[in-house]
């Protein structure tokens, strides 16, 4: 991703390997994309067989942690957490006793990628799902993992689990999620990892134009699709939760902070105060990850003391927008 050698020397890296030739950030594609399901060649759904490896800094991994909790899949899928500070050896399990993941017995996430493909030479990214029976990564398809948890894993959901991906909304949720990824979720990375002024300016303009659209949409709707939380809200939330702590300063996404948006800020708080969202949000890990890892925000490894996060617990008043104020989830 970034020029890690330069970072290690304490310099701001000048190049990334994932650029479009004009200084724009162009993300690598996923290597392991076999879906969960009962079709031929698909990954069989089985309680206790898989371990989800996540970093609490990472928005793509955070989404999967939220959905796993909201659906009550904690007993079916275990979780391993890497140190949010990624060093030049990649994600590692140094927070665990002895520096190894207690289930997989590995020190580095790369070990599970190499178990799956000995020639793997790309970034070992989170989220990654590892089959504990083989120690191999079976999917790192962060685009589709949450919707697979919502559909293919249904038989293992808690009995009162909500429907985050209602069938009649799937087309619209997918369309919005694609736009969200490009404009907002990855939009902040395009600001942060741009290596040219024009690319940065364009990313900044697109990001804030997108946030303005969402601000308007959420002025009259409690959640993106109305009264109930869907997979699309999970996708937007993870970027909003990192906005003031990391992207505003670290990625120069600084036209305004999240707390300066009238509707987006209360919307984000409404979600934060929902089971599964706040419980998986770790602002300290987010700051350590973005400012303490190798990369463009971390030339000197200094972790900012602020911002004050106490506002996340304040009342949000969003119930008034909803026909089902006490019921944020759609039950099946
Ligand atoms: N799998 C995707 C997205 C996941 C992703 O980028 N995760 C980040 C953390 S938010 C990561 O694991 N980065 C590891 C690295 O850059 O070495 C990708 O390869 O771009």
Could you characterize what this model shows?
Helix 2 links the parallel strand 1 and strand 2 (77-81). The protein has 332 residues and is mostly helical. The chain is built from ten helices and four strands. It has two domains: 31-156, 3-Layer(aba) Sandwich (Glutaredoxin); 167-321, Up-down Bundle (Glutathione S-transferase Yfyf (Class Pi), Chain A, domain 2). It has a four-stranded mixed β-sheet with strand order 2-1-3-4, sandwiched between helices. 44% of the residues are buried. Helix 8 (231-250) packs across helix 9 (262-272) and helix 8 packs across helix 10 (283-292). Glutathione (GSH) binds at residues 1, 27-28, 30, 55, 58, 60, 90, 123, 125-126, 140, 142. Glutathione is lined by residues 1, 27-28, 30, 55, 58, 60, 90, 123, 125-126, 140, 142. This is Glutathione S-transferase, omega.
What are its keywords?
2 domains, four-stranded mixed β-sheet, 4 strands, disordered N terminus, binds glutathione, Glutathione S-transferase, omega, EC 2.5.1.18, transferase, glutathione transferase activity
């Amino acid at each position: 991703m970034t020029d890690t050698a330069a970072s290690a020397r304490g310099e701001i890296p000048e190049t990334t390997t994932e650029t479009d030739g004009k200084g724009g950030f162009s993300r690598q594609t996923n290597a392991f994309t076999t879906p969960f399901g009962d079709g031929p060649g698909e990954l069989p759904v089985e309680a206790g067989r898989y371990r989800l490896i996540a970093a609490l800094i990472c928005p793509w991994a955070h989404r999967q942690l939220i959905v796993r909790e909201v659906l009550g899949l904690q007993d079916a899928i275990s979780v391993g957490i890497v140190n949010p500070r990624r060093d030049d050896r990649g994600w590692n399990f140094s927070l665990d006793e002895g520096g190894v993941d207690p289930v997989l017995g590995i020190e580095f996430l790369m070990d599970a990628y190499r178990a799956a493909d000995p020639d793997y030479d790309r970034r070992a990214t989170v989220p990654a799902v590892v089959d504990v029976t083989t120690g191999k990564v079976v999917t790192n398809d962060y685009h589709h993992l949450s919707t697979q948890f919502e559909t293919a894993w249904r038989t293992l959901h808690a009995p009162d689990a909500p429907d985050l991906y209602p069938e009649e909304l799937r087309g619209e949720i997918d369309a919005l999620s694609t736009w969200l990824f490009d404009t907002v979720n990855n939009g902040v990375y395009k600001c942060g990892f741009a290596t040219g002024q024009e690319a940065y300016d364009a990313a900044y303009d697109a990001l804030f134009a997108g946030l303005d659209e969402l601000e308007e949409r959420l002025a009259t709707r409690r959640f993106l699709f109305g009264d109930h939380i869907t997979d699309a809200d999970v996708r937007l939330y993870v970027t909003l939760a990192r906005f003031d702590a990391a992207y505003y300063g670290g990625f120069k996404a600084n036209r305004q902070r999240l707390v300066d948006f009238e509707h987006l800020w209360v919307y984000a708080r409404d979600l934060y105060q929902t089971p599964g969202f706040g419980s998986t949000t770790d602002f300290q890990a987010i700051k350590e990850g973005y400012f303490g890892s190798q990369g463009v925000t971390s030339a000197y490894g200094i972790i900012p003391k602020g911002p004050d996060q106490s506002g996340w617990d304040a009342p949000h008043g969003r119930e008034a927008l909803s026909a089902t104020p006490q019921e944020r989830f759609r039950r099946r």
